[in-house]
Amino acid sequence: MTDVEEVITSQNALFVVYCAYLLPRLQTVSQVFYFINNLTLRPPRKYSGPDTRTRINKAIRASELRVVGPEGENIGTLSLVDALKKADELKLDLIEISPKAKPPVAKIMDYGQYRYDTKRKASQAKAKAHVTETKSAQVKIGTGEHDQQLKAKRIAQWLDEGHRVKVDLFLWGRYKYMEPEFLKERLARFLKIIPAEYKVADPMKKSPKGWTTTIERIPGAKKQKAVVNLDEEKEVPKSHEKQSDEPEKPKSKKRSLDDLLDIEGGLI
């Protein structure tokens, strides 16, 4: 009996045992037909996509290789047999690092170290990759000047980070029925105070909640620190500063009886 006949015989025996075990447990006719249709022996499917696996040692198919040493030195173009002998002498692996080159490039190094370096480089590249998002900022007609400057500063920071910013002019009540030109002018006035270079990616248009526009950073523009001119606090004159270093006593919140009676010179 050949090997193929033995495999077929073993498969048939397995099929009989499987049917004897499951058929008594099938209760309906539909379950029986489903069992028979899905019990056909099918050959395993082969993956037809590109082979992205890293070939090492005897799995390398190229007859000639440009070999790089463990320290990065160029050994030269060698046959596969000579390259494997060189790797065996150094007690390391022969790894095909650039299979599409002509001839393919292989490096002699430890395969475990190669996998570690590859994963570390991939994680570093993923950490440095910048994901561009569309941020959102909302202003109102009644927003104060100080709040507008703070929002403009935050938008400038987002633009410096490379994000797009969607600026919404929120309208409510009677403001929804105001002139469109007036509302556009209010939104444009806010855009002018943003301390960063930008361009309009999406022009002003009406939205369900008011008016909106999208801005983004100009490619190649230098990053600028968002400087907002906030109201400076008034300096206290030096004449009012106390020269003594004695700690101030906490003032009592209770008003004295003289203050309540408002009698000049105190009580009589």
Describe the secondary-structure layout.
Elements (H helix, E strand, L loop, with lengths): L2 H20 L6 H9 L26 E5 L5 E6 H11 L2 E6 L6 E5 L1 H18 L5 E7 L4 H16 L3 E7 L9 H13 L5 E10 L2 E8 L39 H5 L7
Parallel strand pairs: 1-4, 5-6
Antiparallel strand pairs: 1-2, 3-4, 6-8, 7-8
Shape label: flat
Helix content: 25-40%
Spans of at least 5 consecutive residues whose pLDDT stays below 50 are: 225-244, 253-258, 260-268
The number of distinct β-strands equals 8
Span between N and C termini? 134 Å
Q: What is the architecture of the domain at 134-217 at the second tier of CATH?
A: 2-Layer Sandwich
Q: What is the element string, with H for helices and E for strands?
A: HHEEHEEHEHEHEEH
Using only C-alpha atoms, the radius of gyration works out to: 40 Å
Just give the CATH class of the domain at 134-217: Alpha Beta
Spatial order of strands in the largest sheet = 2-1-4-3
Structural class: alpha/beta
CATH superfamily of the domain at 134-217: Translation initiation factor 3 (IF-3), C-terminal domain
Give the percentage of residues in beta strands.
15-25%
Account of the 3D structure:
It is a single chain. With 268 residues, the protein is an alpha/beta fold. Among the domains are: 3-37; 57-122, Roll (Ubiquitin-like (UB roll)); 134-217, Translation Initiation Factor IF3. The protein has seven helices and eight strands, in the order H-H-E-E-H-E-E-H-E-H-E-H-E-E-H. The strands form two sheets. Strands 2-1-4-3 form a four-stranded mixed beta sheet. A four-stranded mixed beta sheet has the order 5-6-8-7, covered by helices on one side. Helix 5 (145-160) links the parallel strand 5 and strand 6. The longest helix is centred in the first third of the chain and has 20 residues, at 3-22. The radius of gyration is 40 Å and the shape is flat. The protein starts with a helix and ends in a 7-residue tail after the last helix. 10% of the residues are buried.
